[in-house]
Amino acid sequence: MFCRILTGMLVLYVLGGAPLRPALCAEETMADSGQTTESAILPGTPIGLSEAIQNAMSRRPALKTFVHLQVAQHEGVFQARSGYFPQLSASYQNIYGNSFLGYFLFPGYQYFDLQQFTVTLSQNLYDFGRTASQVKTARWKDKKAKDDLKFESLSLTRDVTVAYLKLLMTQHGLITANAGVHDARNHLAEAGARLDAGVGLRLDVTQAKVNLESALLDRIRADNDFRTAQIELAKTIGIRANPHYVAREISLERFRQRIDLKRDIPDAYKHRPDLKSQKDTVRTSESVLSNAKSQNYPALTGLAQYFLTQVPEQALGIPYVPAQPFSTFNVGGTISIPIFEGGLITHQIHSARAQLAADSDQLEEIKLRVAADVQESALSVREARQKLKEARTAYESALENDNLVERAFHVGTAKSIDVIDAQTALRQAREQLIQARYDWAIQMVQYRFSLGRLSPPGSRNETQ
Q1: What range defines the domain where residue 7 resides?
Q2: What pLDDT does residue 32 have?
């Protein structure tokens, strides 16, 4: 029973209570530094939070998809910018033919064999912002792809962090369940010894057996929760085969965030990547509208061509066609003016204007959603904080009651069933405290996510 009391002191220490120096039971080996050594208790592969997030960043196909999309959009900027530079092309033609009619009309007619080599240099001189709007569109798409990648990284960081915290919670729950089984077995042995000595009741032994079966059932449930959390973490990281991770202990204070909605909602508007992405979409639509309007204006293009041509002698029966290759060089320009295109440009402008309005409305909708996310997350944090406070109070009360009942039992003023009830209440209070502690941390992670402040390892705003 003394070992059980020390177990309760140890759990309170691990969960952020007063820094006690516990004596350790054989089944509950913990590090004196405050870091748990679950790997010595629970079999599996130890993993840290930063390591888990980094593995997810390198493994998850969804994140890789956004990386490739961002690269594709970045290359699109250079494609659009190519419109500013000269375009040089070369072509070669070899035309070989004959005419049955020509054989009778032109005596001595030979096959027509034209060989022509052409080099063309063109340069866009002025197009009333058409190319410029295309470049702006490509740049805003590139920025949107970057913000989409940031939001996917932010979401993945949150998912892995939550899965990691749930694994830690179930690990502590399993350790507590193991301690409960240990306590129940000790109590059963003590009740049996008292019965054999003639100072106990058989009812106490029966009740102790029932309590042991209940503790064993609790351990089975805790073990199932632990294994489920292992599977969830592996899936979140992107691993098909479950490596049976065991989470290393971390300080939950790293997730603490001072809540001030007047400050945090505007701050979320500045940092939420999904909101930034929608702003980029609006700017992209603005550039598309500008490009559609520019189609109404002329486009001036400079042109230079070099021809090298050879026509065989007596082709088409014309004796003065040069028998040797000859070349020409032309310099000029082209101006194209849209006059009538069947309403194409007009409908393109109407379509672009409607798309801009839709994207602007969607931006306002996302702003509403961001504000709601922050407010709802703040309420969840407040509720979780209150539950944690109540759980700590309940645990301290259950621990004190257990100590009092234990002393009363040894002096004969309490029954064995009172001890069992106190022990069960303490175990339940301990489990509720563990869950409340990690629920609070998870809600803090969700709140930081709603602000766009939950950064992956290695970034400036890293929370690891």
Answers
A1: 2-69+136-280+353-451
A2: 29
